[in-house]
Amino acid sequence: MDEQLRVGLVGAGPWAQLVHAPGLADHPGTRLASVWARRPEAAAELAHSYGATVAADPDELLSTVDAVAFAVPPGVQADIAVKAARQGKHLILEKPIASTVDDAERLAEAVDQSGVASLVVLTRRFAPETGEQLAQLRQAGGWVGGNARWLTGALLGGPFADSPWRHDRGPLDDVGPHAFDLLDAALGRITDVIAANRSETGLWQLVFAHEGGATSSASLTMTVPLNPGIAEVSVYGEHGYRTLADRGTTAQQCYTNLLDDFVAMVASGTTTHRCDVHRGLHLQRIIDLARRKAES
Questions:
Q1: Which structural domains are found in the chain, ordered by start?
Q2: pTM to 2 decimals?
Q3: Which PANTHER family match (predicted)?
Q4: How far separated are the first and last CA of the chain, in Å rounded?
């Protein structure tokens, strides 16, 4: 692009500090232009670290930027993102993209009607090794099943332990989208949640049906004191058993790769991507169905 995208950052918590702000400030195609957060002092501290302005409210932020990146709870993100899309601002969305399917549908509709670019921060999808391995799985075919294990103690300690929305919604909404997205990409589109259960300890166990006939399972928790945690997806079928290997691409590197795609989308006028708002909507529907299955 001839000029850097002016990006506003909504949120100033740990994830914004670790990934969004440095990524936006360091990327050659973007400039961290403005920061707004519900805690003004946190917004000011983060903005000043990168030479950005501090917005008094979301409307002020939207008036000065070309795009918006979000690092806030889904219930906060959805309303501001809809307004941003309707004003023609391109969007970098966190997962899940909303707190309800209705809000996710409203957001997807606003993005479509405005013709803006959108990407969801499904971190591992932007690791080069993940793309290579998924392509190999698709080429081989013949996979009949799979499983995902996302097992961490993130709610027991660390930078995200004091996050109210994560405690409220749990691993289904927080780490679930990562697991579901990769199972879906490896085995075919998830078409149904066959079974879902949440234990008293917060462990989710789920079984999925996939387009094409494969089935898979997922185990999710954020309250088991594992160090390091486990984030693993495997598939099996006529070509044996394969695990999507993590070759050490960091979250920061994945975010830089996301920004490469985002800047290219804006420059070319492209509005579709494997991780765009409609991917977020698909994952939101899976989350909603799983929660209803568990409660029935």
A1: 5-123+251-276 (3.40.50.720), 128-247 (3.30.360.10)
A2: 0.96
A3: BCDNA.GH03377 (PTHR43818)
A4: 51
